[in-house]
């Protein structure tokens, strides 16, 4: 896949002297869903604002579809649809009027067939004549996406698309995003919800204190950094672990009914075989066992804590 966005050596120092971005390098591949994760204040919105040409970088370059956002702003910007964090639309306009108007802002000729397709894709067609004020929060969010897609951009930025949205609506939004990807749009979303990145993204980037600390395929990331947990459900409860097991990092849980062992899937030896042997020697028997992969959330918390 070729790059549709290329960010090189980007830094941003605000007037206050605060360094919000420090030498960021990032390529977004055409057609992917890229999730940018980071704690509050990490620099996500600053980065998006610079890529979209809303804020100026202090140093560095951004190319969008091969065009510089700094020197070819109009060309580069027309490739981008942006759904900002805060929802602001004209409450008394109809859905149709507000979405059509957005297209006009990009100097594009009217194209009712395109607006109709966008509204249908976003399940807003039956609301096209409703005033924005009469819509639910989830529908208003979809109107914001429709506005961002009105000028047929190739790239869609979604800044916290599901913040404060209930679980069902969030899942609906994920469906919408998948449909958009299938129609050929490249999607970059920022989120606090690790689950969202885990569910949606092809690749994940983590930003912390203005620095990109990781960019990785989601699947590789889960595998590479993942730890596994072995849980043994004991035949009988035990009060404490015998000394012969003291060199293992074991946790006795559920009042002595389960034994938990965390191991590194990357390690040469997991220690499981010897642990099971030593348990047998110690006379500790179990009925059942299971293993679980640690989640992206564990990985993320680790990264942000240590970087
Ligand atoms: N106009 C500004 N002047 C000075 N500092 C700013 C300005 N805008 C943002 N910052 C600072 O830059 C840092 C990054 O802010 P940014 O909004 O990019 O973070 P974010 O990752 O989007 O956070 P959140 O998840 O809370 O939206 C923060 O410490 C913020 O206080």
Automatic annotation (TrEMBL):
User: Which Gene Ontology terms cover its molecular function?
Assistant: ATP binding
> Superkingdom of the source?
Bacteria
Record family assignment: Belongs to the ABC transporter superfamily.
Q: Which UniProt keywords apply?
A: ATP-binding, Nucleotide-binding, Transport
Does the keyword section mention Chloroplast?
A: no
Task: Please give the SUPFAM superfamilies that the UniProt record associates with this protein.
Answer: P-loop containing nucleoside triphosphate hydrolases
Q: Does the keyword ATP-binding apply?
A: yes
| Signal sequence bounds | none
What this protein is reported to do is described as: Involved in beta-(1-->2)glucan export. Transmembrane domains (TMD) form a pore in the inner membrane and the ATP-binding domain (NBD) is responsible for energy generation.
User: What's a Pfam family in this record?
Assistant: ABC_tran
Q: What is this protein called?
A: ABC transporter ATP-binding protein
Q: Which InterPro entries match?
A: AAA+_ATPase (IPR003593), ABC_transporter-like_ATP-bd (IPR003439), ABC_transporter-like_CS (IPR017871), ABC_transporter_ATP-binding (IPR050763), P-loop_NTPase (IPR027417)
Q: Give every ABC transporter domain span.
A: 5-234
């Amino acid at each position: 896949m070729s790059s549709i966005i290329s960010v090189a050596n980007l830094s941003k120092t605000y007037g206050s002297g605060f360094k919000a971005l420090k030498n960021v390098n990032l390529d977004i591949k055409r057609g992917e869903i890229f999730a940018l994760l980071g704690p509050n204040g990490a620099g996500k919105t600053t980065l998006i604002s610079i890529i979209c040409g809303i804020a100026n970088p202090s140093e560095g370059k951004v190319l969008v579809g091969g065009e510089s956002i700094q020197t070819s702003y109009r060309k580069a910007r027309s490739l981008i649809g942006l759904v900002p964090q805060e929802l602001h639309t004209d409450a008394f306009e109809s859905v149709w009027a507000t979405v059509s108007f957005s297209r006009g802002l990009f100097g594009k000729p009217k194209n009712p067939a395109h607006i109709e397709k966008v509204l249908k894709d976003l399940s807003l067609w039956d609301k096209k004549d409703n005033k924005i004020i009469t819509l639910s929060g989830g529908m208003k969010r979809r109107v914001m996406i429709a506005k961002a897609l009105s000028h047929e951009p190739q790239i869609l930025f979604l800044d916290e698309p599901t913040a404060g949205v209930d679980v069902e609506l969030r899942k609906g939004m994920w469906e919408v995003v998948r449909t958009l990807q299938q129609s050929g749009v490249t999607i970059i979303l920022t989120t606090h919800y690790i689950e969202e990145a885990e569910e949606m993204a092809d690749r994940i980037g983590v930003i912390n204190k203005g620095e990109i600390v990781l960019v990785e395929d989601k699947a590789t990331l889960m595998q590479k950094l993942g730890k596994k947990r072995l849980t043994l459900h004991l035949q009988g409860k035990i009060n404490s672990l015998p000394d012969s097991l003291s060199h293992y990092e074991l946790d006795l849980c559920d009042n002595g009914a389960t034994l938990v062992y965390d191991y590194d899937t990357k390690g040469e030896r997991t220690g499981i075989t010897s642990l099971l042997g030593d348990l047998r020697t110690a006379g500790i028997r179990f009925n059942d066992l299971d293993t679980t992969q640690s989640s992206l959330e564990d990985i993320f918390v680790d990264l942000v804590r240590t970087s």
